[in-house]
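Q: Entry one of two.
A:
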Amino acid sequence: MRREGSGRAMGWPGAVGLMAATGVLSIANPGLLVAIPLALMALFLPARGRTSIVVAFLLGLLAFSGTPTSGLWYVERGWAALLGGWFLALTLRWPGGAFISRGLGAVAGTYGAMGLLFWTRPGYWAVVDWAVTSRLEGGMALALQAVRSSIGPQAIPVATEARLLEAMALQGTIFPAILGLASLAALGAAWWMYLRLNRVDEVGIRPLIEFRFNDQLVWVLILGFVLLLGFPGVLERMGINAVVFMGVLYAFRGLAVGWALLGGPTVFLGIVLFFAFLVAAPFLLAGAFVFGLGDTWLNLRARWGVQSPR
């Protein structure tokens, strides 16, 4: 397998961060989003060995064992299988391509395949949407009940509970975008594990400081705003999900630009960013988004003398 360019590779902290992001963002079983793509990579990519085949068998056994408890059991595994299949196909076709290009391509392909299914069977989407919303509502209800049981009936003010319920309703609206982001993080974790498992001579995933993606994807963000502002109903929901998905990617790109300009991530900078996020998360995210979006046209890292990745 050819190398993905030269340079530094993402280490253990980055891999742990990807796993954490998968767990936090995923409305599906995060283990499935990692395990099924990893099993497909271990089984079908050229660098496989006996260890890979054993790992693939065990992961497949764990992923598909058990008794289905709801329709989401099938949806979760179907999504993860499509995601892994698309990534596998893109890797076999462009083995030297950057991970982010193959990862975003796999997420887009999975969106397209599921969208085609729901377009031909509209009732399926209604069922999935209802099931996901019910899962979110159930999780929020259990969390509120646990807090009240531990601290007391008046532990959560009425206004706070109302805001939490509003946030849950918003999450139910944008769960496709959140699932896409979790899927991208899961593919990153699975690809990192695959490279370590097979000791492939490849840089793999670059560190966050070098994060960027195809500049033409700005049109997805623009289309999302157009749909969000000009079309009600289904198209409006598609628009808000496109804006959320691309907005988060641009915020991470902006963070990468900021870290590069400050000379790279350090423990002190990480602590400062952590507390800044706790105090002023909306302003920090908005600033990172602006930096990331500006990097599309201005290539800020190159303009300010910071080496930019390929």
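Q: Entry two of two.
A:
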Amino acid sequence: MDNLTDKTIWVTGGRGFLGTHLCEALWKQNAELIVTDSTSCDLRYRKNIDDLFSKNKIDIVVHLAADVGGIGYNRNHAYNLFYNNAMMGINLIDASIKFEIEKFVQIGTVCAYPKFCSPPFNELALWDGYPEETNAPYGLAKRMLLVQLQAARSEYNFNGIYLLPTNLYGPHDCFDYEKSHVIPALIRKFVESKDEVKIWGTGKASRDFLYVEDVVKAIILAIKNYNRKEPLNLGSGVEVRISTLVHIIQNILDYKGKIIWETSKPDGQPRRKLNINEAKHSLGWKPETTLTDGLEKTILWYKKQN
């Protein structure tokens, strides 16, 4: 699939954080887009999906839509996170088989990896244990979609691929305190606070942060060129402690207030870093944006909105 000209691509969750960036890039590739969100097409109900397929000739589905949030949101909505994400994906994949689409691209989650996984995480380690408890309902719902896609490939020769992005960040991210992930939550706290910032955990946990424009390039390359049953990691390849992340944001904003670590709150998964050798080999891709540069762009965008 050398180019996407005249391909009709349905992007679920296309008005969200990653979807906003991906759709803009796909338009530049001359693709015809169908963009939906939860208000225009609730994927938990199969009839909505069948109706959309019946009315449109769709070549490719990119499934970004997810019910997702940070540690607090995961703790408070465990059942809905499992149910909503499982039902959306199961319905959409099954309908895509029925309507014989050319390719299905499932965006998975790094939360599907086991809690105690030795970094850098290799794709084969996905099945080596249970996810971190606060992320498990969300992560397992997403992990099961990989099983569904692999079964569909075996039984129906269905071309479904599964991409595993790490912690994403960048402009248009969600900065809502309940649903935001660590980077937008920290940026908002530092921007709004004058005297002190309270941060969950010890700061010892690590994450692998990938700038959104870098992952968009990888997704487009995968749409064109990746057709294997194995999941594919998309990360920065750099492990960053939360304490280091806090220090970088503090320096960018020249914040002089006090930092308080709320050590009674959970850290989440202890360590996180993806092995991205396969993505480099299969896609000819590598991340280009350093964490400091990406954070500066994200902070600048956020401050312009407020």
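A: Comment on entry two: The CA atoms of residues 94 and 221 lie 24 Å apart. The longest strand covers residues 160-165.
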